[in-house]
Amino acid sequence: MAAQSPGIPHARHGGNPFLKAVGAISTLAGWTAAAMIVAAVAITCQMIFIRFVLNGSTIWQTEMVVYLMIAATLIGLPYVQHLRGHVNVDLVPMALPMAARRALAFVTLTAGAAIIAVMLWYGFEFWLFAWERGWKSDTVWGVPLWKAYLSLPVGLALMLLQLIADIVALALRIETPFGLDDA
């Protein structure tokens, strides 16, 4: 795998095999999400061509694009976290001494992981419910909804894994709290 660009912030692994593996999984999730977005754009172009050039009707395209974009958002979560791409307001951490900054980082990462864990639980439960009941969409295509809902537990599980890796990196002092050095 190519080295990260020095201008792009990303999670450090410090040679730790767990952190390296989670980083690789998050990167793969990011590439998968990007491929889903490209596929959604291609399907949208195909749908426009069929509707407005060939004057035909479309059956599955709109629904597929919606499912792909939702899945790309959920599957892409850990990659964005790995790149430190989420919105970060660091006014409070910058005002704190390093020990308090580290404690605040542990609290926020742990709270985030707890929230994602709850969402994962309910997302899995929702997916399982659709699987067991054989739910299908109320469209002509009638896609089994367990396929569309699978992105909930998968994306949230990957996000939880990335947050756990971030907590481990902070505990092992591979990462600095909020990416801020003691200055």
Question: Would you write up a description of this structure?
Answer:
The chain is mostly helical. Helices cover 69% and strands 0% of the residues. The protein has helices at residues 17-53, 61-82, 91-95, 98-133, 145-149, 151-171. The two termini are 33 Å apart. The model has no long low-confidence stretch (mean pLDDT 90).
Topology:
Layout: H1 17-53, H2 61-82, H3 91-95, H4 98-133, H5 145-149, H6 151-171
Helical percentage:
55-70%
Order of helices and strands: HHHHHH
Mean pLDDT: 90
Number of helices: 6
Give the class from helix and strand content and strand pairing: mainly alpha
C-alpha-based Rg, rounded: 20 Å
Shape: elongated
Major beta sheet summary: none
* Poorly predicted tracts of residues: none
Straight-line N-to-C gap: 33 Å
Portion in strands: under 5%
Number of strands: 0
Number of domains: 1
Give a brief rundown of this model.
The chain is mostly helical and 183 residues long. 69% of the residues lie in helices and 0% in strands.
List keywords for this structure.
single chain, 183 residues, mainly alpha
